[in-house]
Amino acid sequence: MIRLSQIQKHFGAHPVLKGIDLLLPAGSVTALIGPSGSGKSTLLRCVNLLEMPQHGSVQVGETRIDFDHRGQHSRHAILALRRQTGMVFQNFQLFPHRTVLQNVMEGLVTVQKWSRDQARERAMTLLEKVGMAHKADAWPATLSGGQQQRVAIARALAPAPQVLLCDEPTSALDPELAGEVVEVLRQLAQEGMTMLMATHDLRLAANIAQHVVFLEDGAVIESGAPDAVFGQPRHPRTADFVSTLT
Ligand code: ADP
Ligand code: MG
């Protein structure tokens, strides 16, 4: 349901993604692993078009955009594709001057033009889902990192995206707080949310994902089921990298 074909991205003369193919079946969870600088964040940003690839195509559901060297794409298609994706960042990126509830409601009201009452209702449902309804009126700065990330997940889910993109969602958290975020993501996976997450966290990559993709230097070196990639890596570079994970 999400298909990337031959995605290329370079910054100036520096090639960062060298022709990536990736298929995310509906309801599947894919972990993107690889060394720092291998292009994981850039790839995630190419899915929701925070970065525009210079070549290849991105398809989310019915919406497909073909990129070429000219970069002429309809604004309409770009917005349509962005609406199908939700993004969770390593550092949460909540709006500091808005309450928890306002953070989750905001996009529904300003972008999707929902009424405040409807947006509040949906936001509260999502906050209950991530175990944060009791903090609806709190300010982000008063929350733990794990709580902030759970709110950020609720916010990303608010417009009912077809895919949730997570960029190292537990990397900024102590193990205990990371655990509560892992639990929320595990529950979403069980409910059939399609997810693509860049992570160094084996609890996410080995236990929640059905597919693992190892990226190095802008190319997919190896991919497969977690048991295969972590247990019997075929490529020596994968084996080296996997041995560094905890
Ligand atoms: P990862 O998430 O795997 O650590 P990134 O996608 O962040 O990797 O970065 C891949 C490469 O692209 C790095 O060499 C990084 O310096 C470069 N890069 C990322 N974003 C930009 C940018 N906006 N401008 C220039 N270079 C960038
Ligand atoms: Mg990154």
UniProtKB/TrEMBL annotation:
Keyword annotations of the record: ATP-binding, Cell membrane, Membrane, Nucleotide-binding, Transport
Keyword Cell membrane in annotation: yes
Domain ABC transporter span(s) in chain numbering: 2-242
Keyword Transport attached: yes
InterPro entries registered for this protein in UniProt: AAA+_ATPase, ABC_ATPase_HisP-typ, ABC_transporter-like_ATP-bd, ABC_transporter-like_CS, MetN_ABC_transporter-like, P-loop_NTPase
Primary localization class, coarse: membrane
Single GO MF annotation: ABC-type amino acid transporter activity
Topological type in the membrane: Peripheral membrane protein
Pfam families, per the entry: ABC_tran
Protein localization: Cell membrane
Ranges in a coiled coil: none
GO annotations of cellular component type: plasma membrane
Protein family (similarity comment): Belongs to the ABC transporter superfamily.
Name the record gives this protein: Amino acid ABC transporter ATP-binding protein (PAAT family)
Lineage of source species: Bacteria, Pseudomonadati, Pseudomonadota, Betaproteobacteria, Neisseriales
